[in-house]
Amino acid sequence: MMKDVSFGQYYPAESGVHRMDPRFKLVLMLFYVVLIFFVDTFVGYLAYLAFVLLMTGLAKVPLRTLLRSLSGVGVMVIFISIINVFFYGGGEPLWSWWVMSVSVESILHALKMALRIMLLVMGPALLTFTTTPTALTDGIESLLSPLKLIKFPVRDVAVIMSIALRMIPTLMEETDRIMMAQKARGASIDTGNIFRRIKALVPVLVPLFVGAFRRAEELAFALDSRCYNASPKRTRYRILKPGARDAVAVLAFAAWGTFVILSIVLFDFDTMIYNAISAAIGG
To answer: How confident is the prediction along the chain (283 residues), in pLDDT tens digits per residue?
Structure first.
């Protein structure tokens, strides 16, 4: 169900992760996302998984809630894994037919790609779980504030990005309600082949887009009625000030990032894993 998609939602809790300066969380998450594209070892991915699980525990976010954020990419993970298993084309094939082949390398590569996608989703999801939309807006605006020198609408961009994140769960819930209403009227959405299912989604997409535009118009009226951007210099209820926990978080993240980089450069456990699997298959 679409309502099980939790990405973009805020999970209220009393934790040090929640109280961190949003600017530091945004910058650290940027490094988190960039660094994962250089990781190509299982040690690195295990370090990423340990980091996510540790942050989830420190943030007091239920693991089940974090795993629900993966429900939206489950089909994509399965599809990419199948493509990598059958069309990777590296190593000695264990099975082959026409242009398809399966090898130990292709299986390990597919597993790495699946882990990368899931970790790419879980990290930003944890950011939205522990940061309110207002804090995200203030953090983005503060980080982009140098662009104000060239008359870039920093505040507007920050608000748009924050609203876009918050609209994800709202649109998912709206989609779920529309699908349930269509099923109650006898629509066959979950049956038939792929082409019939795509065709059956048309009665869902039309009211979904209409509702999205209506919500956007209502939000625009609400912002206008509250004199949003009426003053060029807007004040804030909370002033962002870095604290000791932010410095500790940066140092801890730097230590973790150093370990990840060393795992890429020095550790070669992938060869050991490959040799162990090959020996098991050969035996």
So the answer is: 444 555 567 888 888 888 899 989 999 999 999 999 888 888 888 899 999 999 999 999 888 888 888 877 778 888 888 888 887 766 666 777 777 777 777 888 888 889 999 999 999 889 989 988 778 888 888 888 888 888 888 877 877 877 777 777 778 788 888 888 877 877 777 676 667 777 777 778 888 888 888 888 888 888 888 777 655 666 666 777 888 888 999 999 999 988 888 877 776 666 666 666 666 665 5
- CA-to-CA distance for 48 and 120, rounded, in angstroms? 10
Residue whose entry in the numeric block shows the structure tokens 């399966």: 102
Encoded tokens for 51: 């980091």
Determine contact, residues 128/157, Cβ cutoff 8 Å.
no
| Cα–Cα dist 26/259, whole Å | 21
Q: How far, in Å, CA of 166 to CA of 129, rounded?
A: 11
How open is the CA angle 150-151-156, to the nearest 5 degrees? 130
Residue 111: exposed, middle, or buried by beta-carbon count in 10 A (0-12, 13-18, 19+)? middle
Give Cβ neighbours of residue 27 (< 8 Å, ≥ 6 apart).
143
Cα distance between residue 57 and residue 152, in whole Å: 39
Tokens of 37: 């594209």
Report CA-CA distances (Å) from 89 to 139, 168, 176, 212, 261.
44, 37, 40, 44, 27
| CA proximity to 46, closest of 281, 273, 223 | 273
Query: Is-contact 83 101, C-beta < 8 A?
Result: no
| Residues 260/35, Cβ–Cβ less than 8 Å | yes
Cβ(5)–Cβ(169) under 8 Å?
yes
| Separation of alpha carbons 25 and 140, rounded Å | 10
- d(CA 215, CA 210) in angstroms, rounded, equals 9
